[in-house]
Amino acid sequence: MTGPRPRRGGGSAGRRGTGDSASPAAASGGRPADPGGGAGAGVGGSAAGDAAPGSSGARHSGSRGFEMDAPLFVISVAAQLAGMHAQTLRSYDREGLVSPGRTTGGGRRYSQRDIELLREVQRLSQDEGVNRAGIRRIIELEALVDVLRGQLDEATAQIAELRADLVESRMDAANAAANAIAGLRRDVVPWQESSTALVAWRRQRRG
Q1: By Cβ atoms counted within 10 A, which residue in 2, 41, 146, 194 is the most buried?
Q2: Is residue 110 classed as helix, strand or coil in its secondary structure?
Q3: 52 or 165: whose pLDDT is higher?
Q4: 114: Cβ–Cβ under 8 A, 6 or more apart, which residues?
């Protein structure tokens, strides 16, 4: 008599779903989590929820394709893209130089526009030697220029639209006047001056 046959798929390899759960680092593809962020850290995660006023999340204007103001990057990824340390990004955020969006858990989420602003702040600080107060003033003036440019574009578009409406109105008025004059010409009877010439009348003789 033979003994019981061994079960197939035995061992740790066959016990799927019953082993130890993967670590957070492995679940996120080996990317370290944001020390200042909450759950759901990652690029383009669903945790990019309520953003603080004036942050990149509040400036998000739509969802068509890639948005410059979409809060996508956690602080570790943003630091790598900007070429600086994550602690520097936290310092810029505390000083109000570059304030990213925030998740409901308080985690920072940087947009592509924030990344470009971080690079500009780094350039002004290291290459140009501008202090933090000067950098803050430059950022404020550049933001004001962007607002004024937007208002100028809107005004220019409105002026172009008004000019087009004016040209169309003039053409309609000219056509209406031409039609009115043509109608009057058809209705008016030509006037002829009466003749005052005398005609001599002679009585015919009877034979």
Answers
A1: 41
A2: strand
A3: 165
A4: 56, 73, 78, 98, 100
Of 108, 53, 38, nearest in space to 79 by CA: 108
* 116 vs 122: CA distance, rounded Å: 10
Q: What is the pLDDT of residues 54-80, one digit of tens each?
A: 444 444 444 444 688 888 899 999 999
- Please list, in sequence order, all residues whose beta carbon lies within 8 angstroms of the beta carbon of residue 82, skipping any fewer than 6 positions away: 89, 115, 118, 119, 122
- 200 pLDDT tier (thresholds 50, 70, 90): low
pLDDT of residue 26: 37
**End-to-end alpha-carbon separation of the chain, Å?**
174
Which helix (H) or strand (E) is 159 found in, with range?
Answer: helix 132-187
Contact 107, 43 (CB under 8 A): no
Residue with tokens 């409406």, as numbered in its chain: 165
- Short-list 107, 92, 111, CA closest to 35: 107
Residue holding tokens 């955020």? 93
Cβ neighbors of 37 (< 8 A, separation 6 or more) are 47, 74, 75, 103, 105, 106, 107, 108, 109
C-alpha dist (Å) from residue 18 to 7, 22, 27, 28, 207:
17, 12, 17, 20, 152
Give the CA count within 13 Å in the CB-facing half-sphere of 82: 29
The ranges assigned to domains in the chain are 30-130, 132-177
